[in-house]
From TrEMBL:
Pfam family, one: F-box
Superkingdom field: Eukaryota
Family annotation (InterPro entries): F-box-assoc_dom_typ1, F-box-assoc_interact_dom, F-box-like_dom_sf, F-box_dom, SCF_F-box_component
Coiled-coil ranges from the UniProt annotation: none
Gene3D superfamilies given in the database record: 1.20.1280.50
Protein name (database record): F-box domain-containing protein
Biological source species: Escallonia herrerae
Domain spans labelled F-box: 1-45
SUPFAM superfamilies: F-box domain (SSF81383)
Amino acid sequence: MASGIFPEEVVREILLMLPVNSLLRCKSVCKTWYTLITKPSFTTAHHNCNAALKGNRCILIKRFLKGSNKSVLSFLSDEISGDDHFPPTEITIPHSNHFLQMLGPCNGIVCLTDHRDIILCNPSIRAFKVVPAPSFNYPQGLFSRTLGVGFGFDPHSNEYKVIRIAELHEDDESLGYSFHSVKVEICDMSTDSWREIAAVVPYVWYFPCSELLFNGAFHWWADDEDHGGESMLSFHISTEVFQQIRLPSVCAFPDGNERAFLALNESIALILFDASEQTSFDIWLMTEYGVAESWTKLITIGPLVQVERPILFWKHELLLEKANGQLVSCNLKSQRLKEFQVYGAQESFRAVAYSESLVSINRGSDIS
């Protein structure tokens, strides 16, 4: 093939079917293959091919290992089984905070953040990029605190965007803490530059797994100022337009429950639960996107003993984290529990459905 036995079109079609690890090795075969594999058009075609073949998807897990004091990414294959299933590889994340949220993925790229530092990562090619910190000059006496972070891809401008919802507040020794306003800031990754957009948004709250990229928009859990309750705040990545979607009337913060937004059956699922000795998970489904009246109670899982929080819907299973930091799954029909020999620090698990990608993170501070 390298010597021209097959036409380039045939070689390209064969290479498109290979996994990323094989393609990285194929880049060393000859200059022709290197040039072909590194073309942006080939990267896009390879990602689209993987995305179309949903059987190629796997589970990407983020967790914190207490013994080694590091956060790692691990892959679980398409068919999750039981005790005999171990993550084959661990990719160390260049950040020590074990409360990192994992957002995305977008074209094989995920965003890792503790609401202070923001890191983009393509685990398929072991590439990391630190997003530059915002450098806005706020009025004297005002300080900034991150309420929520979002991440997505704009197909119209062909660029990735990081969204930061920030609270401005005063810290006065005599008056104490004083809320001022909420601002929205966007980092365009093609230029590594931040800009502020004019938008009036509600106060955003945070729970683990309460931030979700879905259907070209990013979502946060927020106040519903117009109706005196709670809402899901969405931000369309391309149009940069916000929308508030009311949550079911059973939500009345604070009610002792935690919330999680997960994708299920091409819809957004809201999970209400109270992490305790025996935890039940009420699963609501928004059957028509953007329509508050379409929230429908789907099922209640549990009560489950020593199971604290949901992580990811995967086919007919719900992945969860136990109180001892062990990964388990629950069958949505039988509600039978399976345990995995996969452990992490409590509350450190995050997971996404993932398709490998050659997409390069080629601007800013790359970390080997």
